[in-house]
From TrEMBL:
Enzyme Commission number, as recorded: 2.4.-.-
Matching PANTHER family: GLYCOSYLTRANSFERASE, SLR2126 PROTEIN
Protein name as catalogued: Glycosyltransferase family A protein
KW Mitochondrion (keyword) present: no
CDD domains given in the database record: Glyco_tranf_GTA_type
Sequence ranges assigned to domain Glycosyltransferase 2-like in this UniProt record: 162-271
Molecular-function GO terms, alphabetical: glycosyltransferase activity
SUPFAM superfamilies, alphabetized: Nucleotide-diphospho-sugar transferases (SSF53448)
Protein's UniProt keywords contain Ribonucleoprotein: no
Organism: Agaribacillus aureus
Entry keywords, A to Z: Glycosyltransferase, Membrane, Transferase, Transmembrane, Transmembrane helix
Length: 453
């Protein structure tokens, strides 16, 4: 809905899950300000500065979404009948200035002028938008205060949770991860470890006799091959995804289960806290709809896999296989909650695991002449969002990726990377063209989604 009306968001958030409409499901994601409770209206604030009522209603709905107002009541849905008066050009610039860095509005203006949009319309609308101050999109947020005292029935019913834990050359970190799993207040039904180490130390596991371990030693390396195989052999009603370079609190499993019941959801998408890479997002501190899926920290009802399939093997050795699964589940109507209490510390160690198999992230290849982004990233974008939005994603993601991963926290360094990309444009173009061709090959091959037996 957002992309249809505030269409400038295609320049900033071109491949956001919620730009697409789920095929099924009756839970409203976009709420009508007029139908909110009074305390909710203090969180999603109606902005009278927009030219059209449609823009003001959608703006309030966007606030409600981002600030964690969650409802299953279809009567609260924002109806398209109320959006007949669409946002003006100035409203679009105003919306961008309100929630995003001012540099984005300049970027959008440049793109639109270069693509032959009427400057006599664009420039006045742009300058009207500059009068709008920046608003914190994540404050105030809905606190869901009843959650703390909620007595979850599921925690008393001995739920069967299968924990999926792939590992590769990380016994040092795997030990701590297994110890954490052994300390859970809700004991796991089973812990399926998929060991892909070249010469596995099978005796390593003898030190955990108290754990319900199921060991799979896999010669062929592949993160989605490993997870799919483990899920196929699992017996739990709930599948809990974990990584070998992670630490969790004793109530980790319990908080995931409680969240599923409290919000009547299908997926509890835990947050990952790290001291490496980008800063911890502000919205990780409260419940909200999840717009990403982390295969290192998520609890999924088995029924989700039964309907949408397992992970797509096209992403083995590459990136965004978890993002693709999360998007597929969303499009099938399953509900996913971003869970601040189902948190993990992600150590992001520099050796072993996916670091050994691929790259630090989807846009930073390890080698100079390697494709940028990783081909699977473009495969995902092109498959679900189309060519045009995939190109917009390249425009706003590739230039900052010139700087190494360790600088993701620095906006100044990312901006520097964007300037550097201009001077090394032939190299960047070569990398992107290579990624596009390889993703085209993947498009021709189609997905390789496996299914539960």
């Amino acid at each position: 809905m957002l992309l249809e009306y505030f269409h400038f968001t295609r320049y900033i958030k071109p491949t956001w899950y919620f730009n697409l409409k789920p095929e099924a499901g009756k839970t409203p994601y976009w709420l009508d300000y007029d139908q909110l409770e009074e305390n909710e209206k203090q969180i999603a604030i109606y902005d009278h500065s927009f030219d059209s009522k449609g823009a003001a209603l959608l703006d309030a709905s966007y606030q409600a979404w981002n600030r964690g107002i969650i409802s299953h009541d279809q009567k609260k849905a924002l109806s398209v009948d109320k959006l007949t008066e669409k946002p003006s050009l100035a409203d679009n610039y105003r919306f961008v200035r309100k929630y995003f860095n001012p540099a984005w509005s300049i970027y959008i203006l440049m793109i639109r002028l270069i693509t032959f949009h009427n400057p006599f319309k664009e420039l006045p609308a742009f300058f009207r938008g500059t009068k709008t101050g920046r608003t914190n999109l994540f404050a105030p947020f809905h606190k869901h205060e009843a959650y703390a005292s909620y007595d979850a029935r599921i925690l008393k019913e001995n739920p069967s949770v299968s924990i999926i834990l792939p590992t590769l050359n990380r016994y040092k970190y795997l030990k701590d991860a297994l110890l954490d799993l052994g300390n859970q207040t809700i004991p796991p039904y089973e812990i399926i470890v998929i060991d892909q180490t070249d010469n596995p130390d099978k005796a390593f596991y003898d030190q955990f006799p108290q754990l319900p371990l199921k060991l799979i030693f896999q010669d062929q390396k592949g993160q989605w091959l490993a997870r799919n195989r483990a899920i196929q052999q699992s017996g739990g009603a709930y599948i809990l995804m974990f990584d070998d370079d992670s630490r969790v609190d004793p109530d980790w499993t319990a908080e995931h289960l409680k969240t599923l019941e409290y919000f009547n959801a299908d997926i509890s998408a835990g947050v990952s806290l790290s001291t490496v890479g980008a800063a911890i997002p502000e919205n990780y501190s409260f419940f909200r709809w999840a717009d990403q899926f982390d295969s290192g920290n998520a609890l999924i009802k088995r029924a989700v896999f039964e309907k949408v399939g397992l992970f797509d093997r096209q992403y083995d050795g590459q990136r965004m296989g978890d993002g693709e699964f999360g998007l597929r589940a969303y499009l099938s109507g399953f509900l996913s909650i971003s869970n601040p209490y189902g948190k993990r510390i992600h150590l992001k160690v520099s050796s072993g695991g996916l670091r050994q198999m691929g790259s630090w992230d989807g846009f930073r290849p390890k080698k100079l002449l390697a494709p940028r982004p990783i081909p699977s990233v473009l495969f995902l974008f092109r498959k679900y969002f189309g060519k045009k939005l995939a190109i917009y994603s390249l425009l706003n993601s590739v230039p900052p990726s010139i700087m190494p991963y360790k600088f993701k926290r620095s906006k100044l360094m990312l901006l520097l990377g964007a300037f550097i990309s201009i001077f090394i444009f032939p190299l960047v173009l070569f990398q992107v063209n290579k990624a596009w061709k390889l993703s085209s090959k993947m498009m021709f091959e189609g997905d390789k989604i496996e299914w539960l037996n």
